[in-house]
Structures are given as structure tokens and as C-alpha cells.
TrEMBL record:
<dbReference type="InterPro" id="IPR027304">
    <property type="entry name" value="Trigger_fact/SurA_dom_sf"/>
</dbReference>
<keyword id="KW-0472">Membrane</keyword>
<protein>
    <recommendedName>
        <fullName>Periplasmic chaperone PpiD</fullName>
    </recommendedName>
</protein>
<keyword id="KW-0997">Cell inner membrane</keyword>
<dbReference type="GO" id="GO:0003755">
    <property type="term" value="F:peptidyl-prolyl cis-trans isomerase activity"/>
</dbReference>
<dbReference type="GO" id="GO:0005886">
    <property type="term" value="C:plasma membrane"/>
</dbReference>
<keyword id="KW-0413">Isomerase</keyword>
<keyword id="KW-0697">Rotamase</keyword>
<keyword id="KW-0812">Transmembrane</keyword>
<dbReference type="Pfam" id="PF13623">
    <property type="entry name" value="SurA_N_2"/>
</dbReference>
<feature type="domain" description="PpiC">
    <location>
        <begin position="234"/>
        <end position="344"/>
    </location>
</feature>
<feature type="transmembrane region" description="Helical">
    <location>
        <begin position="12"/>
        <end position="31"/>
    </location>
</feature>
<dbReference type="Pfam" id="PF00639">
    <property type="entry name" value="Rotamase"/>
</dbReference>
<dbReference type="InterPro" id="IPR046357">
    <property type="entry name" value="PPIase_dom_sf"/>
</dbReference>
<keyword id="KW-1003">Cell membrane</keyword>
<dbReference type="InterPro" id="IPR000297">
    <property type="entry name" value="PPIase_PpiC"/>
</dbReference>
<keyword id="KW-0143">Chaperone</keyword>
Length: 605
């Protein structure tokens, strides 16, 4: 009987085990970073060494639970392990700072007395089928405890995972939820979802307007010069010439992401892997990945999801997995590719899971660009920077002067570049790598000791500082001039003078601000229309993806009074969202200041 009972429960083992193996990160990490192989390290996180031996042990343990990987997935695996180490270190710091650590007793309670299937990495419905009493609707703790005893090593690991990761994370979320939204924020969000507007628009895209340093007036240069010169007074200045190698994603990379997700979806359908575990390991949305890809309960008619996504999800059966879908972005979904699964469904309400992949340059293309950069750098070092630019047909750019400790125009912030600019000799050549963004081969053109630079020398620096605002000014002026020729209250659509190809006219659907944001990723045109007088009020505003809009509201419907019952549900959602945002912002800011060095390519590529 015992053997048959264990066979019946066997499918749960892998679900538990896959969660349990995550603990190896914490156990090994806590063991310290002892240097091995003659002091060779795979990297350092905030100065603490991670030895090759230690990283190899973590890598090998995680690989045991990641079978059937493609060659490219195997190649990317070390980077995934490294990112997981960084993420856990950041979370550990925040937990320590806030005093949210969990005890052995806390873990035991959650594991044995009041088990949460999702925190154990198991589907709740399946969990109840195996351990629930259908007559009482309660969990059969005696049967569950017997199962735990039969698989004690696994559950000991799970207890450690609960103690060091899941309970602290749950407490972090609860902590951030205590920061409640104000009544004004609640009313604004309610109106954002409820008030409706219909408007005409006139749009000009910033990309259609060319600007040069000569477009800066002497007054603008002088004003910017006076505003920022105090930053440079008493500071060394340097200028560079730059060859840039962009790492922008292209159609090849988009296809790479789609095929990667399609492969995951197919393996889940074949039941080779568990959706929740794949989400934990593969998804680029770390917040939902921590919960096995769980997005929460969503109403398909609430417009938080793009219409095409809502349609696909509505057609999915429970536990069915969608094909990869591109999403431009919405309040609940990041821009990129997603696969979805419905965990539970009741009418329009769904419990939704997803795996998300950000569109970024694929590892093989990034390596090709890195190799080209190294080749150009070596040529420049041997034959000169200008000769390299000619040989490889690359037009160099210049940064203008920048101060020690300041961001470098064109390049922005790379710590090693600052040291190069102020420590190397004039005409020195260097190569610098900003993963996922661009590579640079540079030559040090000039360096000035602590003194003020002249207005003429400041021109290039001022232009790079103000290029985007110049484009916006040009586009806005163009739209304002077009609107000035329109009679009060007259439709944009009837204007024959709007024939310039840089102008686009149209009419919106009847929309709320929330709906508009969900479709276009930017609500400013709808927000401006909502605030302008109906019929003859024209408002001009910036729009999504670098554009300027003139909007003419045709019709509005606005709620006059709001009571507490109307905003009760919104209040809870805002608390959830605020918690996620604050947690994410803290992690992002900490990652920027955290000193991270890795040498993965040397040992694992």
C-alpha cells in the first residue's frame, strides 16, 4: 500500500524538487568565496569573490534540472546562473536592512502547518487532489505529513528555500503594501479608467526633424554654458573621438526570441517541463518569475490587457499554453514576447501565468560585434585611430569636453572610460563594452587641467545635451503653426493645408485614459484631450515614441461624484502595484551602485 501511495504522489516530487534546488544558490553562496585555482575567480559582487569552483558547483547543480537545452541555451546558461546570484544578493541586502529575516519556525509553520502550494511550486488544484479531503474541503494534514516524511531530504531543502527566499520576499511585498495610495491618487486612477473622451488629433514625429549644432542660438549656448560651467570649474576636462558599434536588436533577434519561447511552449505541451518552473528560470520579468510566472487574477473586459492578447487568452483552456505573442506594452505586461497559460477560469475572470522575453540582441550577434570591436581596436592601436575609421568605413564622432566624474556625451557612463580619459596619454586608444547597448573604440583627443573651457569649445557638449529638446521644439513649432491656420472649432480632418508628409491627422476611438495607454503605451494625448474644452479647445502635448500631438476633443463623459465603494478595489490594486514598483525601483537602483565584475567568458564560454 505504501508503495502504491508513493507512486500516486510521485508526480509531485519533481515539482517540489525543482523549487528545492534553488536553495543551492543560498547554501553555496553563504559558504563564502574561497579562492581556488591559484586565486582565479569567475567574478566579484560588491568586492566578494566568487571562485570558479564555487560557481561551477552552482552551475552543475542547476544544469541537473535543466534538461534538453539547445546549444544556444546551454551557451547562455552560465549568464543566467550569474544573474541569479546578483539578484539574490540584492534581495538579501534589502531583507537585512528592513529586518525581515525568517526563522526556522516560520518556515516549518508554512511548510507543515499551513502549506501554500504556490510557494511550494505546485499547482493548487493538483495539490488538493492528492492531499485534500473532498468531503470536508480541508487539507488532510496526516496524509501530507506522511508524504513529507517519505521525501524528507527534499522538504528540508524546501524549508531552507522558504526561510531564506520566499518568506522574506513575501514580507517585502507586505512591507511595501503598507505605503498606501492617497485619496487623490485613488480618485485619479478611478477617473483614468472611467471617464471617456473622443478626439481628433494632428501628429508630427520628432524623427522627421533634423537638427545640427548650428541650430543652437548663441543665447542658448551661453545660457547652457553659464548653467553648467560651475560643474566644470576646477575640474579636469577631456574630449574623445569615438567609433560606435551599436547592439540594437533586429529581426534576427526578434525571431530568436520567438523561437526560444515557441520551444518552451512546445516542451510544456509535451509535459517535458513544468510551466511554473520554466517561468522561474526563463522569464525576464523577475517579479512574476518569482511566483512561477503568475500574473494574478484579471478581468478580460477591464482593458488592462491589449485586445489581441485578451482574445487569445479567452480562447485558451485551463493549462493550455499559447503561441508566442508580441505585446507593445500595457499596465500589466512588459513590451516584448510572451507565452500565456490560464491557471483557472470563471466567465471573464482568469488566473493568468506567462513567460516573458525581452527583445534584445542575441548572444551570438553580440559576440560577433564584440569580435569586430576587438579587431578594429587592434587595428587602431597598431595603425592609428583615423586609419581604422577609414579601413572599416566607420564615421567617427566626438564627445566634446566633459569633466572628471561626469557622464560622457554619446557614451554616457562606463566607469573604466573615466579612468582612461584622465589617466592615459593623449592619442591613447581604448576599447569599451556596454553589454546590450554598444561597444566603443575611442582615442583621447585632448585633456585640459582644471580650468574653464571657452564657449566655442562648449558648442558640441551643449548640442549633445540639448539635441532631443531641439527636435521637440522644431516639431512643436511646426504643429503650432499648422494649428494656427485652423479656424476655431474646425475639424483637423477637413484641412487641405495639412498636406505636409510630416503631419498625420486622425480621430481616436471613444476611450478612457487607461484604455489609450494600454493600446499606445502613452496616455498624454488622451489626457490632454480630457482637459481641453469640448468642441473648440485645442491642446498640444508630447506623445509616445517621440511625437507631438495637437488634440481637439469632440465628446466627453466624466463621473461627477465618487464614493468610497467605487475606489475600494482600485485601492487594493494600487497597493499591489506600488509594492511591485518600489521593490523593482530599489533593486534597479541598488544594481546600478553595486560593483559587479565577471569573467564568465574566460571559464565558461
Amino acid at each position: 500500500m505504501l508503495i502504491n501511495w508513493m507512486r500516486e504522489k510521485a508526480p509531485l516530487i519533481m515539482g517540489f524538487v525543482l523549487v528545492a534546488f534553488i536553495l543551492t544558490i543560498f547554501v553555496s553562496w553563504g559558504a563564502g568565496g574561497m579562492d581556488v585555482f591559484g586565486g582565479q575567480n569567475v567574478g566579484r559582487i560588491d568586492g566578494e569573490a566568487v571562485s570558479v569552483q564555487e560557481f561551477s558547483r552552482l552551475h552543475d547543480r542547476q544544469r541537473q534540472y535543466a534538461q534538453d537545452l539547445t546549444p544556444e541555451e546551454r551557451r547562455r546558461f552560465p549568464e543566467q546562473v550569474w544573474k541569479s546570484l546578483i539578484a539574490e544578493r540584492i534581495r538579501e541586502e534589502l531583507v537585512d536592512d528592513l529586518g525581515l529575516e525568517a526563522s526556522d519556525s516560520d518556515a516549518k509553520t508554512l511548510l507543515l502547518e499551513d502549506p501554500d502550494p504556490r510557494m511550494l511550486g505546485v499547482d493548487p488544484q493538483r495539490f488538493f487532489e492528492l492531499f485534500g479531503d473532498p468531503n470536508t474541503g480541508e487539507l488532510n494534514l496526516q496524509e501530507y505529513h506522511a508524504y513529507v516524511q517519505q521525501n524528507k531530504p527534499f522538504f528540508e531543502s524546501l524549508a531552507q528555500d522558504l526561510k531564506y527566499r520566499q518568506i522574506p520576499l513575501q514580507r517585502l511585498t507586505a512591507f511595501f503594501k503598507t505605503l498606501s495610495p492617497s485619496p487623490a491618487e485613488q480618485e485619479f486612477e478611478y477617473r483614468r479608467r472611467t471617464d471617456q473622451v473622443l478626439f481628433e488629433y494632428l501628429r508630427a514625429d520628432l524623427a522627421d526633424f533634423s537638427v545640427t549644432p548650428q541650430d543652437l542660438s548663441s543665447k542658448q549656448i551661453r545660457a547652457d554654458y553659464e548653467r553648467f560651467q560651475e560643474q566644470y570649474a576646477g575640474t579636469q576636462m577631456a574630449s574623445l573621438a569615438v567609433l560606435r558599434f551599436d547592439k540594437e536588436a533586429d529581426e534576427y533577434d526578434r525571431r530568436y526570441v520567438r523561437e526560444d519561447l515557441a520551444d518552451i511552449a512546445e516542451r510544456v505541451r509535451r509535459e517535458d517541463v513544468d510551466f511554473a518552473e520554466e517561468a522561474r528560470f526563463e522569464s525576464d520579468n523577475r517579479e512574476s518569475a518569482e511566483n512561477g510566472g503568475y500574473l494574478g487574477a484579471l478581468d478580460l473586459e477591464d482593458h488592462f490587457l491589449p485586445e489581441d492578447v485578451a482574445t487569445v487568452i479567452a480562447d485558451l483552456s485551463v493549462n493550455e499554453v499559447s503561441d508566442p505573442m508580441y505585446v507593445e506594452g500595457s499596465p500589466v505586461l512588459d513590451e516584448g514576447y510572451h507565452i500565456f497559460t490560464v491557471l483557472q477560469k470563471h466567465e471573464n475572470m482568469v488566473q493568468l501565468g506567462h513567460i516573458y522575453k525581452q527583445i534584445q540582441i542575441s548572444p551570438d550577434r553580440e559576440m560577433d560585434i564584440d569580435d569586430t570591436t576587438a579587431e578594429v581596436f587592434e587595428f587602431a592601436r597598431r595603425h592609428g585611430f583615423d586609419s581604422a575609421a577609414v579601413e572599416y568605413s566607420i564615421t567617427p564622432d566626438t564627445t566634446g569636453y566633459f569633466g572628471r566624474g561626469h557622464a560622457v556625451p554619446i557614451i554616457d557612463y562606463i566607469p573604466e572610460l573615466g579612468r582612461f580619459s584622465f589617466d592615459e596619454d593623449i592619442n591613447a586608444v581604448g576599447d569599451f563594452y556596454d553589454p546590450g547597448v554598444a561597444n566603443y573604440v575611442v582615442v583621447l583627443l585632448d585633456r585640459k587641467e582644471a580650468q574653464r573651457i571657452s564657449v566655442d569649445e562648449y558648442l558640441q557638449t551643449a548640442f549633445y545635451r540639448m539635441e532631443d529638446s531641439l527636435r521637440y521644439t522644431a516639431a512643436r513649432t511646426f504643429v503650432e503653426e499648422a494649428v494656427a491656420e485652423t479656424a476655431t472649432g474646425e475639424s483637423f480632418l477637413s484641412q487641405e493645408d495639412f498636406s505636409d508628409e510630416r503631419l498625420t491627422t486622425g480621430i481616436s476611438d471613444t476611450t478612457t485614459i487607461a484604455d489609450y495607454f494600454g493600446r499606445f503605451g502613452d496616455a498624454r494625448p488622451a489626457f490632454a484631450a480630457m482637459g481641453a474644452p469640448t468642441g473648440d479647445g485645442i491642446a498640444i502635448t508630447q506623445g509616445a515614441e517621440g511625437s507631438v500631438y495637437a488634440v481637439l476633443p469632440l465628446w466627453k463623459s466624466q463621473v461627477e461624484e465618487i464614493d468610497d465603494a467605487d475606489v475600494a478595489e482600485i485601492r487594493t490594486e494600487l497597493q499591489e502595484r506600488t509594492a511591485q514598483q518600489l521593490h523593482g525601483q530599489w533593486g534597479t537602483q541598488r544594481k546600478k551602485t553595486m560593483s559587479v565584475e565577471d569573467n564568465l567568458r574566460r571559464y565558461f564560454y
